[in-house]
Amino acid sequence: MQQAVTNTLSAPNYTEVLSQSSSQGKQTDYLKYQAPDRLGGYIQSGSKRTYVYVIGSTEYQSQAVPNGTSIKQVTFQSQSSQGVTALDPAHSYLPNVTQTKHVTRSGNTYSFTLSNQGQTGTFTYTVNGQYVSTFNLKVSSASVQMSISAIGTSPPVALPAGANVSPASSVPTTAPSP
Questions:
Q1: Tens digit of pLDDT for each residue in 36-81?
Q2: Confidence (pTM)
């Protein structure tokens, strides 16, 4: 299973659908990852979506807009990014397998538990061929489900054609002179 995690995270590209449910509600991320430094797509929450792209060291994010809003009506704010691997769900969740020595296997499904700050999470990975195809995490009050597909065949990541970009508003670092 660890080799499947390594293979997945080393792939040139893939498509992810990540659903998170908690007491605050449900959110689904529809993302594409392109190595080494591109991630893009949108986050669906209720009837609104927020577009997010990381290209190199720059992150572009829109305000939440109603479903069906034309991408030409969306304005992206740009800012420095903490990097794709910090924001990509697969890079955030899949490496957890390295923190355990007790993995249970049933066919192509692997599971284990980890405890952190008083909470225990049950992690389940499904391996298809040489890659991880699904990932699930359950804790007492929340759950995460992720499917990974189009490994090596996912389309390139770029800002949508015609995207409006404005730099993030900056806060002055010094007080203005009187």
A1: 999 999 999 999 999 999 999 999 999 999 999 998 899 999 999 9
A2: 0.89
Rounded alpha-carbon distances, angstroms, from residue 2 to 85, 99, 118, 175: 18, 11, 26, 52
Tell me if 12 sits within 8 A of 139, measured CB to CB: no
Report the SS3 class of residue 165.
strand
C-alpha separations of 127 from 49, 108, 118, 147 in Å: 30, 5, 29, 11
Domain boundaries, the chain: 2-167
Q: What's the number of CA atoms in the CB half-sphere (13 Å) around residue 54?
A: 20
90: left (phi over 0), alpha (psi -120 to 50) or beta: alpha
Q: Which residues of 29-62 are buried (b: 16+ CB within 10 A; e: fewer)?
A: bebbbbeebbbbbbbbbeeebbbbbbbeeebbbb
When the candidates are 3.20.20.70, 3.90.1150.200, 3.40.50.620, 2.50.20.20, the CATH number that belongs to 2-167 is 2.50.20.20
For residues 54 and 5, the answer to whether their CB atoms sit within 8 Å is no
